[in-house]
Design goal:
2 copies of one chain form a homodimer. Chain A has 3 domains: 44 residues, lambda repressor-like DNA-binding domains (434 Repressor (Amino-terminal Domain), Orthogonal Bundle); 134 residues, Rossmann fold (3-Layer(aba) Sandwich), CATH 3.40.50.2300; 133 residues, Response regulator (Rossmann fold, 3-Layer(aba) Sandwich). In chain A, 44% of the residues lie in helices and 15% in strands. The first copy, chain A, has 13 helices and 12 strands. In chain A, α7 links the parallel β3 and β4. The termini of chain A are far apart. Chains A and B meet through α4, α5, β2, α6 and α10 of A and α4, α5, β2, α6 and α10 of B. Chain A binds a DNA duplex (16 and 16 nucleotides) through α2 and α4.
Amino acid sequence: MAPQSRPTLASLAAQLGVSIQTVSNVINNPEAVRLATRERVEAAIKASGYRPSIAGRALRTRRSWGIGMRLHPVVDGINGEVLDHFFHAVTESAQAKGYRINLFIAADAVAEVTALADMQAAGAIDAALLIDTGLGDPRPKLLTEVGLPFATFGRPWGETFTKHSWVDVDGKAGSYQATRYLQSIGHERVGYIGWPAESAAGEDRRAGWLAAQAELAGELLQAHTGNSVRQGSLAALELKKQGATAVVCASDSLALGALSVFAEGAVLGDELPVIGFDNTPVARAIGLSSVSQPVEQAAALVVDQIVGQVNAPLDFSAQGVLLSPSLELRKWESMVASQPSRKEI
Amino acid sequence: MAPQSRPTLASLAAQLGVSIQTVSNVINNPEAVRLATRERVEAAIKASGYRPSIAGRALRTRRSWGIGMRLHPVVDGINGEVLDHFFHAVTESAQAKGYRINLFIAADAVAEVTALADMQAAGAIDAALLIDTGLGDPRPKLLTEVGLPFATFGRPWGETFTKHSWVDVDGKAGSYQATRYLQSIGHERVGYIGWPAESAAGEDRRAGWLAAQAELAGELLQAHTGNSVRQGSLAALELKKQGATAVVCASDSLALGALSVFAEGAVLGDELPVIGFDNTPVARAIGLSSVSQPVEQAAALVVDQIVGQVNAPLDFSAQGVLLSPSLELRKWESMVASQPSRKEI
DNA sequence: TTGAAAGCGCTACCAA
DNA sequence: TTGGTAGCGCTTTCAA
């Protein structure tokens, strides 16, 4: 073995007195090599710490074993944690299948596709993982045109003319379950605090509450607002005025805010009349019930889909998978929210 | 241009009637090419959407332009957000310098180094970025032995025999500032809630409080505990009993817990007698003052250091940079914590 | 079962 | 200023 440089197929072959091809076969097609030879080669590989050069391999096979994934801006550290988990799980799944994750940032969806196309042109990635699809998301269409295999975490919303593989979590089922639970513990007037109607995922979550609450034929008490804790508080105040005794929220951030209204007078150990979404650490910390997404499973599935797309690029077997969330019930642990004081407007 | 496959230097050269070398020069060494030729080539490059193959280039230059970065397990979504920001900023800085971030996961520090060494052996990365150095961290030594250039976010704690580049934030200065502030608004008995003494970064933060509080020659009221909100609550209760009127905390999670004790009776708009650390979204949401780390700056610097190490591998110019945090002052916005009820132990 | 040779796309080197 | 050539490390193809 050369002193300075890393071992190569050639150096190993020379050292062992076999051909380059034999060493290569031991790695990629072991059955084709006689056992004795194989073991000798394997020992040498191990001893030398040899790793096949991904550059050499990529050049020859035109496969980079890279997956492009955009790192989205940190929007809300409270609910962003779901994506953290997803990222971790994706990286793990990809790694287990021999793929490497190539991180990049982009200002918007179009820049994201441009960056991905560039990375593909440079042979840096074989495929892409798209996160957080929205209504009329331009990315699937653009990537299809470019010919880059991909899958998305988030279903195609609205009418889409591009068929692709995706994994998503059934938000509607989650909020339905949450609403039904609150009903089951005695609340008839369960309100809903969610995002503006532009958010497709948000409307999905809202629909679950609506379905459950409509069954009771009562008044529908709901709010459309931003995702901040403060906005959750304000919306909750309004809903309470209108007669709501409990609320389901589109996020834990909103739920945290709603607590300041609906947890009034509660005592440690009580079941709070507020249910959040995404089961974040904050929810765990204060004992807030929340709808939990099966993030690990989603990540594993979407990586499977990507690998499938890579191996069958012109495949029309694109498929979608909708996973069911679960309701994580908790009792109030450590904090209480008070009613807004006089100083508030 | 070939119909099916991507353009290459050769295809462009053939199409333009120039040599491969000329096209290559236009990309890598434009001054060496006559203006007229250059413009012609550049136009063709643009029109074809050509991108140099990173595999071909890497094979030839033995540079992958990749940086390995371990994705740590999601520990605490409240404080983990700092790392989110750091990740984002690192990716951005690296991208701006032409480097790609290769994400991977590992079970522990040794597995991390092994993974990095493998990636290096495979030519997938030129360098590594280490995050969250601890006391007696084995990674710098191991990576140095392996010969992989790197820099760390986190200083070398304790005696280290491995010199390397690093960037860190001066936690001591942060908690000193926080403590002084609480003193300045009238608190003489400022307590400290922090982590167990094993945490080097934690002890650094504690030291700042100690320095500020020791100046008052009063009793030193402090706690060593875990990082949960609940633990913050319990510790705060204890410190209050001992006479503390305010606390500085090693994290926003702990501060959130401490609020349930120290914010009793507070009114919206009040300045709370609790200061957290890391300036997370939760702190922003509820109006908790917090020590803020200059994450973007740290990321940019550490990437600079890594690039420096790559370009001067045998360099002994390893250097450390200690950045100063800033105190983010806020007034209570929406939530209050109550004293623990009877049900609590 | 093993080996020889070609060539993936690129850049360094040298010659024209 | 431009072009030709070698070779980075690998896998594929074909021959032995």
